[in-house]
Specification:
Helix content: 10-25%
CATH topology of the largest domain: Rossmann fold
Strand order of the largest sheet: 29-26-30-34-35-37
CATH architecture of the largest domain: 3-Layer(aba) Sandwich
Distance between the termini: 41 Å
Largest sheet: 6 strands, mixed
Radius of gyration: 24 Å
Number of helices: 15
Shape: globular
Length: 644
Amino acid sequence: MKKISIVFLATIMVVSGFQIIGAEIKQDESNFLTAERSFNEISLNNEYSYISVVADGVNDFIEEPGHPRLPVYSKVFKISGKAKIIDVICDFSDMETQELSKKVIPAPQIKYKIISDENTNNFDLIENKEIYSTNELYPPINYEYSIRCGLDFDGTPTTFVCIQAYPIRYNPIKNTLYSFSDVQINVEFENINPGVETSAADSYDLVIIAPGEFVNDLQPLVDHKISMGLSTTIKTTEEILSEYAGRDEPEQIKYFIKDAKENWNTSFILLFGGLKSYLYAKDKDSHSHGAKAWHVPVRYTNIQEADEVGCVSDLYYADLYRYNEDLSEWEFEDWDSNGDGIFAKYSMMSQGRDELDLVPDIYVGRLACRNKFELKIIRDKIINYESTSPSEKPWFNKIIGITGKNFDMWEGQPDGEFLVDRAIENMSRWVDEEVRVYASNVQSGNGPIPNTEDIIEEISKGAGFVDFEGHGNPIKWNTIHADGDYEDHDWVGGIDVSDFLKFSNGDKLPIVMVGGCHNALFNISILRVLLTRSSHPNYYWSYVPSPFCFCWAMVIKPNGGAIASIGATGYGPASGNDPISLQGEIDNNFFYTLGLETTEKLGEAQGGMVTKYITENRIRQRESFTATITALLGDPSLQIGGYE
């Protein structure tokens, strides 16, 4: 292991992130950052009828389905504040070649965490014919990079330079590897004044955006937040739409949020309102937005993923800035970089996709209340939760993991259980009691299993945190047995929204992570599900009508349930090469950021999970989709565990 050397300028803080072990990082007085990495040993292994390629010194792989699965070295430089990036260069050592006896293994096809007996345990290996029939190097370049703008884990506005270097490339026709043993990465930058300072007189830590009809009933929450030292105000949806311009209602609201950040020094935005009707709510007004049926309008993405028709994404409101490489400066991120009026457009089959930043610049959550009854439930939950400290909650120091086998075994255990074990490892700061509601307990007889009865019993005892990892739809979560498969319908049982009435945990309210497809699809209404379930089954993803999705039903349940939940508004994609990838990775990032000493608020953990995912990965269509579907149904300013 080489020594890591970082030199700081007196007026500039620069941090380099993402697995920097083995790299030497330097900054000189001319605002240059340098990192060096060696890839000393390449391992070739027979795998199925292919060869898998592994190299020392890398920390990622190309995982595009059907493309050669080759090693990647990902490197993130973090420059505190706004920065002008002048140049990014990777210098490689001399190239070496090696002929192979078999083709390089392709990355497996993606599967989804949907509740369906059509799932299979295996991830298919299907070569991309265009790639595997070319007489050119893949990837076509030695390295690439992106520049992103957003909050670092401690809330500092940061310019991220995210680099992917490809030390091994492949010619499929010649069946030859072309490799480099070393790379030196050089980044030249110039620091820029981060922005305008605001005075305490015009500063609000938390801004609640809500319809005017909710204002009076929200005043106790505002008073509570202020009493806890969090300066808070309400801005009504109606006021925003009358005062701010924009191409549609979500853009008007986003311009207000940008204004609040820049002029009020706001850190947290709470969107307090969902659809207006349980019975019938036409949730979309265009491909890209919903407004008329909503108390607080929503942005829909247009990122193609299998047969999805567009997903709700509140990340839109959090992602305020992008880096303009032509002007070398931060600018407003409208999610419509090509200007065609279709927001968050990304399809392999069409031209003119949008380049998205995707790193949060402010912490955003939504409480998708339809009426004052729901408002009062969650309002009182938050006030009661925050009014007592973690030490006054003997149940808070517990985490419950609920899972089984998502698709296959991984490192000797069901892949879902592997995921949850990794999440629990990050939680020592908060918990000292771990309850594993695992499918493998059926064989071992050592504890509860993820059937309805055991899930209800364990959650009813109370916990600070719950982690579901399995399969879902808007109203149900489930998993399969550790020794089961989908063809034999080996579902353990799981739980659905109708079972939530049996929760008896009272004020013992956990923060809940739900891994699965569509569990946070908070745009459903009863008649809309009934009217579309045959003609458009891929719109609401449920045959059974419900006024609440899984994640929101847990939060809005009176006398129990959850204080907040995080889940997916779309498919939950999964990769066969590592459970900690795609949705599994972003879910686990939440527990990683919870474990950081700087994390005190729920929004910091949820925003950090997205930042970590976006800055540490090769961001293509599927990765963009995975980030944008992640929804926090909760108060981003929630003090985790309550105030001391």
